[in-house]
Specification:
alpha/beta, 9-stranded mixed β-sheet
Length: 336
């Protein structure tokens, strides 16, 4: 009995050894890449689309083989405006979200949808890269389950008029039918500028300017060129009433799953992408002033301080300002 057991064990051991020897030597399994899906409504030629390629390339350099970055343009993955909820649920890793998106769940953030709060792109970066940004982004993370990584300059909105006229203060826009996007927040801004805010779909603005249904519209200069509004207007007034921005954000679920080193690399890649966009957007806007002058438009600069004081006073007297933390506007104004 003992001899039989020993022989059986010997045979089984030999068979196991022979089987192991017969198996091919496989290399260790390659590390699984972390998938980072990006959803954006931006079209391919937009700097806000191109910046995601910078994000991807940056991660390929700093974290080779660690991430699978998938860029989805033209809102093909998620519809515009639905990205924050998708990230909160963990169904999407990255997107860019607007101040209007954030304000729906973080009411104090609505201060950045008001006119003349941010002066210029440089101040915009200082606000959001400083203590104010840190406080507000913490609230965003807690209430929205997303972490903002970088601030992207969207453009500075200017007033574009069908007929040229002297414009120095808000009083000079009295009676001007100024097209604004249709929401109450946008219409309030138009009224605060001194004009008669008139809601009209973007696709109808060109014809509205041509026929005189509206007297003017407001948009960043790249939009004025892209939509060819310069063909049916005679003046651009550099009111610079809204320095707009969007925020590269990542799902908390995705961000918290990363190692500290990976978090650092993803954040750095987002900031590199934002810097690329901001540099090119600012450069383009600077060139467009000369473009519009060559197209025959008057380009004038009003008393921006007079506009700022008037518009900020209008907001502070409104219901919008009731949700702004006390002293926040003063802190923003003091950021230089």
């Amino acid at each position: 009995m003992t001899t039989t057991r020993l022989n059986r064990r010997t045979l089984l051991g030999a068979a196991a050894a022979m089987g192991a020897a017969a198996l091919p030597a496989f290399p260790a399994m390659a590390q699984t890449k972390t998938v980072l899906r990006i959803s954006t409504p931006a079209v391919p030629d937009d700097w806000h689309a191109k910046m995601w390629t910078v994000f991807k390339e940056q991660l390929e350099k700093t974290a080779p083989g660690e991430f699978d970055v998938q860029i989805n343009l033209n809102a093909t993955l998620f519809k515009q405006g639905t990205e924050p909820a998708a990230m909160a649920r963990g169904n999407l890793e990255l997107s860019s979200i607007s101040a209007f998106d954030i304000a729906k769940l973080v009411p104090e953030f609505s201060i950045f949808t008001a006119g003349y709060v941010v002066r210029d792109p440089d101040q915009q970066q200082k606000i959001f890269n400083g203590p104010i940004g840190a406080e507000l982004f913490k609230a965003v993370s807690e209430k929205m389950e997303v972490t903002p990584l970088a601030t992207v300059y969207l453009g500075t909105r200017q007033v574009n008029l069908r007929e040229a006229k002297p414009v120095k203060t808000p009083a000079d826009l009295k009676g001007v039918k100024l097209r604004m996007p249709g929401s109450k927040e946008w219409l309030f801004l138009g009224e605060a500028l001194g004009a008669t805010a008139t809601p009209l779909a973007f696709g109808e603005v060109y014809m509205g300017l041509k026929t005189g249904t509206i007297d003017g519209q407001d948009n960043p200069l790249p939009s004025v060129r892209a939509a060819k509004f310069y063909e049916v207007t005679k003046q651009i007034v550099l009111t610079s009433h809204l320095v707009d921005g969007i925020f590269i954000a990542i799902s908390n679920k995705s961000f918290n799953a990363l190692t500290p080193a990976q978090k650092q690399k993803v954040t750095a890649a987002a900031q590199a992408a934002a810097a690329y966009n901001n540099e090119n957007r600012i450069k383009e806007e600077g060139q467009l002033v000369e473009f519009f002058k060559k197209e025959g438009l008057q380009v004038s600069t009003p008393d921006v301080d007079a506009f700022r004081k008037s518009v900020q006073a209008t907001y502070q007297a409104s219901d919008y300002a009731k949700v702004w933390p006390k002293g926040l506007l003063d802190r923003i104004n003091a950021t230089k």
